[in-house]
Hints:
By secondary structure, this protein is α+β, with helices and mostly antiparallel strands. Helices cover about 25% and strands about 20% of the residues. It contains nine helices and eleven strands.
Amino acid sequence: MFGALNRFISRLDSESPSQSSRNASPCGFQVLRNKNLDISIEPWYDFIIGINGRQVDNPDPSLFATEVRNCAGSHVSLVLWNAKGQRTRTLALPVPTPSPTLGITLQWSPLSVSEDVWHVLDVIPNSPADQAGLLPYGDYIVGTPEGNVHGESGLGELVEDYLNRSLRLFVYNHEYAVTRLVTLTPSRAWGGSGALGCVLGFGALHRLPVPMAEPIAGPGETLFETARFSNDEHRPPSAQLRSQSPSIYPPSSSVTQSSDLIIPASMASPSPLPSQSTAGLTAGPPRGVKKPRVTPASNMSFDEYFREGEQKSKEEDFAPTTKNSAPPPPPPKSVKDPPPTKSPEQSAEIQSEEGNEEQQASPVEKEPQTETANG
C-alpha cells in the first residue's frame, strides 16, 4: 500500500508545472488553415470556443464535425476568440447540403499559445534582423515553421540552435495587418551584441493589439468580452440578486422629484422618528459639538468661495488685515555705550598727574600775594 502511494506521489512530482498550467487554461479549436475564402475566419489567430450556443469542451474533432453536419442546409453558429486584442465574436456560417463541411483545418490547443509572442522594440542597423527587414514597434514574432516555441526563453533557445544557419519566422505587422515569412541568419560575428541584433519584448504588455481598422473602446465600455453558453453554470443576473437582497437605501418614491438640479452637498435626510422602545430611555451624556460644515451656495462663484475661506483662515490665525491697520511702532532709540572701565593702575596714574598739575599751579597763584606784602 505504501509503495503504491509513493509511486503515485513520485508521478505527480514528475509532472512539469508549465504543462499542468497549460492544461488548466481554457482550450478551443485553433484554426490552422482556411480553404473557404467566403468565411471571415483568420488562421492561427482565431479559436473556436463555442458552437450553436454550447461551449466546446471536448477535444474530439468527430463530435465537432457531427455538429456541423447536423446543420446541413442551414446555418451553424460559431463563437470565435481572436488573439488580436483577445476579443470574442459570434459568426453564423451557411453549411452546404452536398458536402456539409466548412473547409477549415482545426487543432485542439489552449488559448495560452497565443501568449507566446515577441514584440520587436528596436532594430540595430546592419544587424541580421535589419537585413531580414524586421520593423521596430510594428512587428511581432508569432511563431516559426521549425517547431513549437513556448515561454520567454523559447525563442532564444531556437536562435542558439540555428546559429550561422537560416531561420524562418512568422512575423505579424500591426500597422498593415499582414503576416509574412521572414528568413534570417543568426550570427554573433556581425559586429554587435546578440545573435539577432534587435530588442524584443515579452509578456502581458506585448500581446497582439487590436487591429487599427477596428474602433477603439471608449470610456466606460467593456474591455474584455466573455461569451455565455447554454451548458455553463446557471447564474442569476445581478438585477435579480439585488432585488432578493434587502436594500439599505430608501425607495425612490420617498425622494421628492424636482426639475431643478440637486447639489449632493446640500441634500439632508430627515432624522428618523424615535420608536416606542427608545422613547423612555434617558439620553446619554452630551458629546462634543461638531463644527457645522459650510457648503457653498449654488449661486456663489469659485472666487467668492475661496475669498471667504481665505478671510476665515486669516481670522483664525489672527493675521492683521491690510486695510485700516495702525502703522508699526518706531524702533527703540539706541542707548549710548557706557564709558570703558579703567584698571586701578590707570586710575592711580591719572590721580598722580592731577596732583602734579595742582602743585605747579599753586606757586603761580601765591606770587602776587608776596609782592603785596613787600610793598
